[in-house]
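Me: Here is a favour to ask of a fellow structure person. Could you put it straight underneath, so I can go through it closely?

Assistant:
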Amino acid sequence: MKMPWPFFTTIRWQDVFDILLNSYILFRLYVLFRGTTVFRVLTGIAILWIFQRLAVFFGLILTSWAMQGITAVAALIIIIVFRNEIRSVLQAKNLKSILWGFHHKTVHTPIEIIAESVRALARRHIGALIVIPAKEDIRDIIQGGSIWQGLVSKEMIMSIFWPDNPVHDGAAVIEGNRINEVGAILPLSKSDDLPSHYGTRHRAALGLAEMTDALALAVSEETGNVVVAKQSIITEISDPSELIEILQEHLGITEKEKGYPKKKKLEIGIAALVSILFVTGIWFSFSKGLDSLITLEIPVEYTKRDPAMEIVDTSVDAVSLHLGGSGALIKSIRTEQIHVRLDLEKAVVGENTFSITQENITLPPGIFLKKVAPSVVELTLDETIKKNLPIQVDWVGRLPEDLILSWINVVPEKIDVIGGNRILQNISTIYTEKVQLDNIKESGTISVNLALNPASLIIASGSKEKIRVDYRIEKRRPLKVEQ
C-alpha cells in the first residue's frame, strides 16, 4: 500500500500552527457559549457549511451558491440578534477567563430558602413573580427594574412582595445568592391556551419562558397556587419537594448530576478532539480544494563538479516545473525560492545522462511538484587543459583608399587559455574582438578584449584580459606609369 508521504511533505509549520490556533478558538467558543442559543445557531451554521462543501464536491452549483449565501447571512444575524448573549459572555473580569478558564458556578443559589419563601407567600396569598436566569442574557427582555443586589433570604423575599412595597407587582431576578433586580416588567405571553383563572403574573412568567431559557415562578394572590414556567411550558406545583427538584434541575445540581465533574472532563476532551478534526477538515478543504497550478522555467544548477573537468555541452539549460499549491502560496512564490540541482560528483568525461526527480528540486513549503519537463538532462564533460595560443587581431572593414596598414604589434603575442581538451585540440589561434578599420585615419594604439569561442574557454590566471595593439598607418604610394 502506497503511503501518502508527498501530502505530509507539503505541510508547513505555519499550517500546523494555523490548525491548532483555529482549533483552540473553536474550542473556546464551545466552552464560552455551550448551552446557549448562540451555540445552537452556530452548530446549525456549521452543518450548513458542511452541506455546502458537499454540494461543491458533487458539483451542485445552485445548491452550493444558495447555502453559501445562507451561511453568510446567518453569521451576520448571530451578531445582530444575539449581541446581548455575546456581550454577557465577553464581559469577563479578566482576559484569562476568556482565553483559558472554564466556567464554574462557585456561588450556589439557596434553593431551600427560595422554596420556603414561595410556600410562605402562597400560604398568605401574597402575589409574587421570581425569575432565575440560566445561560441566556435576559437584560434586554425585561424592563423597568430597579437594581437591588441583596442577599437571598426569606425575610428579603417576603418584604419585596409585601403589598405595601412599591415594587411588589414586578418580578425579582435572582442570580446566584443575590437578588439583583426587583420591580422588573416581563413580556406577556400571547398564548390562547392558558386557563381563565391565570392572571398577569402567570402570563408574564410564561412570556419570559417562551423567549429565554430562564425559569419563572409565579404565586397567585387570589388562589395561592404556585406555577413554574420554563421552556414555554407552565406547570402547577402542589408539593414543595417538587419545586425543590425543579429548581435543582434548572441550576444543574440534581442527584443524577453528582458525577458531573467526570462527565465534564470527558465532554471537554471530546469537544477539543472534535474542534481539531473539524478545523483540520476545513484547512484541507481550503488548501487542497482551492489548488492552483503554475509553470516556471528554472535554470539547472550543477554542484560538486570536478575542477579538472568542464561542462562542454548540455541538452537543456533550464527545465519547466509544473507546480501546485493553494492560491495564496502560488501567488507569493518567487523563482529564487526554487532550485534544480544536479550532483556531478560521479560524472565522467564524455556524455552523461541525469534524471531529474523530486530529490533534485527544492521547493517552498506547501508547494508540490506536478511534473518536470524534460525529466532527463544530457551533459557532456571534458578534461580541462591549459594551452598557449597566439593572438590575432580580427580586422574588419576597409581603410580609406589612400592609406595602408604597414605595421602591427600585439602585446602579448600569446596567451594561456584553459578549456576542454577536445575543444582546444581544434583551436590554433585566439582572435580579439572585431576592430573597425573604417574610422582609422592615423597610427596609434588600441586596447581590445579577446573573443573566446566557445564561451566555456577562460583565460588562465596571470594572463592579461586586455590586449594592446600598436599599429602604423602610412600614405599609399602612387603607382608609377611607364611611358
